[in-house]
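User: Predict the full complex structure for these chains.
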Amino acid sequence: MRTDPEVVAFSILGRPLAARGAPPRLAQWLHAYWDYPAPAGPGRPYAIAIETVAAAPAAAPGAWTARDVAIPGRTLRFRNTGDTWETGDAGAGLRLELGREAATIHAWGWAEGGDPDLYHGLYVAVSEALRASGLVPLHAAVARRGGETVAWLGTSGVGKSTTLLFAVEAGWSPIAEDLCWLEPETLRVDGFDRGVRCWPETLERFFPRWQGADVTGDGKRLIDYPRLGSAAGARAGTLSRLCVLGRDLAGPSRREPVTARDVVKALWEATGVPLGDWTRQLSALAVARLSRLPVDRLILGNTPPFPPVSGRTAPGQVPGG
Amino acid sequence: MPSIAETARYRSKPSVIETDLEAELVLLDPETREMYSLNAVGRAVWRALPGCTVAAVATEVTRAFDVEYGRALDDVRRVLGDLLATGLIVSAGDAD
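Assistant: Here is the predicted structure of the two-chain assembly.
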C-alpha cells in the first residue's frame, strides 16, 4: 500500500484501485472507507482509477438523462449517457466511466472541506465500479459456523448487530456486521467492515463484557473483529441460509415463515439499486439466486433472539445458559 | 380503469427490475421502491408486451393457457389495468 499524497494505491477485494493527485482529505477518505485487508480468495484484474483533475472534462457526446439516487439520509442527482455517469456541477463534481475491464473516475473541484455530497457521490461511483467488476453489495449481518453461513437481513436499526453478537456468543464467527460483497455465481461473501457497532444500552443489557469497547462518532460502541476472535482473512464464507429480521417489542422473540415476495423485498433493500442496466442485471441474478436459499423470519422481541439460527439450538435456550 | 383497446401497445418502464421466482415474477420499481408480484398469467402478459398489441398478447395467453380468446383478453386487460395503475407500464401507441 502506498500512502504518499500524490498516489493512493491499494486493492479492494482483489480489484486494484489507484488515485492520482488526491488531496489529503480524499486520500484519508479512500483509506477509511475502501482500504480493507485483502481476502484470501482470488482477485480480479478490474482496475479502478481515480483521477483528480483541475476542471470538469469536456462534455461527453450523447443525450444525458437525470437520475436521482436515494442513499440513506439524502438523494443525489446523477446524470448519465450510456455507461458514463456524472454528479456535481462545473465547479466540483465527478464523472464515472464504466468499462467491462476497468472504470475511471474523474474528480474536479475537490477542495479541502468540500461538499459532503461529493463524497457520497464518490461512494456510489466506487460501488458501481465494484458492481461492474462482478460483485454485489449486501447490507446484512453475516456469520458462519461449520459449513453454514447465514445472512440476517433487515432495515437499519432492526437489530442486525444485536443478533450477530448473540450468534457470536453462541459460537458463530462474524463475517460482517453491516456490509459484505457477494459473488452472485458462487454466493461467496467477504466481510467489508471493521467490527460490530452496538448501542451502549444494548451492550449493558445483553453483553456487559463489551461495555468498554471504543466509542464511535455516532455514540455506538465498536467491538472490532480481532477482539471477537475473527481474523481478517477468515471473514468470508459461502451463503447457505437467510433470515429476515423484524421487530415487535410487545412480545417475545420468535420465528415465523416469510413469503418469497418479502424475501425479495428484503434482498433488494440489502443490495440496493445499481446505477446501470448491466450492473442491475447482476444484482437481479444475485437476488434470484439468494431467494432460493432456505429462509425464515426472526421477530426480535423483548426476550433474547435465541437461537439466532433455526434448528441448531433448543428453543428458549439463552446464550451461555 | 382506462379503456384498453385491442390495437393498443404498451411497454414496461425501463427502470423496472425483475426477479423471477418461477412461481411468481416480482417487479421492483426502484423510483418508488414499491414491489409487485405477477402470477403465471401476469408473467405471460409481461413477457409478451414488447412490440405486441393487446390482441397479440391475448393470443399468446390463449396459446399458453389453453383458454378462449375472449377470456384471455379479459385477463390481459385486467393485468394491464393493474400495471398501468402502478406505473410499471406506459402506453406505446396504437397499431396502424
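DSSP finds six helices and 21 strands in chain A.
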